[in-house]
């Protein structure tokens, strides 16, 4: 209205000056202040614009009347956005904030190294002047945090590997990545439900523990050691952890790392909210002789050179190409460099926990030791439910009892059992009968070969007695479940 009045009354030269004056008077009288958040700031993309768009997508999905829908590459979810000139009120700490999405055609195209979009997009944020400090102090941070959270939830996770042997790609990254689509979850994982709950609670405490770690002066990281025979679900557990927390996985192939400094560089290039995995740690490096390593000349330390295990070579110090030392690995997991990011989980897996150096197992490095055991009765019930759809009470009581009687003595891995079930999944009765037969046959074999069982038990016992165990509660639960094992 004011503008049309100006056009009618004032000559052109006076108009601009009057408009400026008017807007100044208006700003002085108004109790609101305005912030423009444009999509492109000069030639750089404005992160805050993208964050605001994501953040508002959660509110817009509920209140907006005309919405734009987008689905990013690799994303599993659709996000909603505000259309041109749409408004939305968000409330932060009891303070209402008005957002308007403004899209205007870009007029004279200025010179730029990259083509700019045809229209200018931006949000205008309106807030009462008295609440200005709130916006600047915490609201914008809140938006960034929430947007990151939404992004993580929507986006598929990535699995990174250092298979290029430390060489960098064009963007200077030592990691290769692929979208991570492993379907394993804690629901599909067959293990003692009590143990499972404790692990999930521990993971949740970790993920929500930022202030706790800050308060106690600890680096925000946690180590898990998964040990047990092959096929008991160690790798599946890692995938379930990543899916549960929404973290990326960095699968570190130690045999591809040449020295401690490369190891550190790899660590520096990992993002927060990730799981760093070293599988079969006992096969990757000589982990039994830290003192000897420390005394060795640099570059002549214990290392893995792609040949037989160092132990097999009698110490493994033959000066080959790789020179990762145990102390290098210890620093990787618990030294100053391990804190160069935050919210990170280290997971080591092994089939032979007794081969590992106690220094590697101590709390702070491997906080929780998780024994992945042969299939127990509760685990078997989970497999029957997942593979054949047998819920509680669906299976014949007698058959269930028979299965329960042999499953512990059979010492079959969940991998072995799931194979029998997969093979016969079209005929449930046949699957159960065949499983029962397989379990009984295995019990017979184990009894005939009594030494095998004792050896496994010995390994388990040694592992449980290994010094300075972390995750005491979980360990107790392992002990409890082991008490049920047959002698
Ligand atoms: N606890 C389990 N729950 C559900 N499925 C399992 C479990 N353990 C094993 N499996 C099945 O067996 C297959 C092999 O398991 P997985 O690779 O996790 O074993 P692992 O312990 O990592 O073995 P390895 O020590 O040889 O690496 C998986 O694809 C999975 O389907
Ligand atoms: Mg594995």
UniProtKB/TrEMBL annotation:
CC cofactor: Mg(2+)
TM stretches of this protein: none
CDD domains: RecA-like_BCS1
Gene Ontology biological-process annotations: response to stress
Keywords, sorted A to Z: Hydrolase, Magnesium, Signal
Catalytic activity from the UniProt record: ATP + H2O = ADP + phosphate + H(+)
Region of interest (Disordered), residue spans: 292-317, 447-487
Residue runs in coiled coils: none
All copies of domain AAA+ ATPase, residue ranges: 220-376
SMART domains per record: AAA
Gene3D superfamilies with a match to the protein in the record: P-loop containing nucleotide triphosphate hydrolases
Gene Ontology molecular function, alphabetical: ATP binding; ATP hydrolysis activity
Family that this chain belongs to: Belongs to the AAA ATPase family. BCS1 subfamily.
PANTHER family named in the record: BCS1 AAA-TYPE ATPASE
Protein name: AAA+ ATPase domain-containing protein
Organism, scientific name: Camellia sinensis var. sinensis (China tea)
């Amino acid at each position: 209205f004011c503008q049309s009045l100006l056009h009618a009354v004032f000559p052109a030269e006076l108009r601009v000056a009057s408009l400026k004056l008017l807007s100044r008077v208006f700003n002085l009288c108004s109790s609101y202040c305005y912030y423009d958040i444009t999509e492109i700031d000069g030639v750089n993309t404005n992160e805050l614009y993208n964050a605001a768009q994501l953040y508002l997508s959660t509110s817009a999905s509920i209140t907006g009347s005309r919405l734009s829908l987008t689905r990013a590459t690799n994303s599993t979810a659709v996000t909603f956005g505000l259309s041109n000139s749409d408004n939305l009120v968000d409330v932060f700490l009891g303070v209402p904030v008005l957002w308007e999405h403004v899209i205007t055609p870009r007029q004279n195209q200025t010179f730029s190294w990259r083509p700019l979009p045809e229209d200018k997009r931006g949000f205008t944020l309106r807030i009462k002047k008295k609440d200005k400090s709130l916006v600047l102090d915490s609201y914008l941070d809140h938006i960034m945090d929430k947007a990151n959270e939404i992004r993580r939830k929507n986006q598929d996770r990535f699995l990174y590997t250092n298979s290029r042997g430390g060489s960098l790609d064009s963007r200077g990254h030592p990691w290769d990545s692929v979208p991570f689509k492993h379907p394993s979850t804690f629901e599909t994982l067959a293990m003692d439900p009590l143990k499972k709950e404790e692990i999930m609670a521990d993971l949740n405490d970790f993920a929500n523990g930022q202030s706790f770690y800050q308060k106690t002066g600890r680096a925000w990281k946690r180590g898990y050691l998964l040990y047990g025979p092959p096929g008991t679900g160690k790798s599946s557990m890692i995938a379930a952890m990543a899916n549960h927390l929404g973290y990326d996985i960095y699968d570190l192939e130690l045999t591809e790392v040449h020295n401690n400094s490369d190891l550190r560089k790899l660590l520096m290039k990992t993002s927060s909210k990730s799981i760093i995995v070293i599988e079969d740690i006992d096969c990757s490096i000589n982990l039994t002789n830290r003192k000897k390593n420390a005394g060795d000349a640099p570059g002549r330390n214990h290392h893995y050179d792609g040949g037989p295990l160092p132990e097999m070579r009698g110490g493994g110090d033959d000066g080959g190409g790789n020179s990762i030392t145990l102390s290098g690995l210890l620093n990787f997991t618990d030294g100053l460099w391990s804190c160069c990011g935050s919210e990170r989980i280290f997971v080591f897996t092994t089939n032979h926990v007794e081969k590992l150096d106690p220094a590697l197992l101590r709390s702070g490095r491997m906080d929780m030791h998780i024994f992945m055991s042969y299939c127990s009765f509760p685990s078997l019930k989970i497999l029957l439910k997942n593979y054949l759809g047998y819920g509680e009470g669906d299976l014949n009581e007698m058959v269930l009892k028979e299965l329960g009687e042999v499953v512990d003595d059979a010492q079959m891995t969940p991998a072995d059992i799931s194979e029998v079930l997969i093979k016969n999944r079209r005929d449930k009765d046949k699957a159960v009968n065949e499983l029962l037969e397989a379990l009984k046959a295995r019990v017979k074999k184990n009894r005939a070969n009594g030494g095998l069982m004792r050896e496994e038990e010995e390994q388990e016992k040694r592992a449980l007695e290994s010094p300075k165990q972390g995750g005491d509660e979980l360990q107790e639960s392992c002990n409890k479940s082991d008490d049920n094992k047959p002698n």
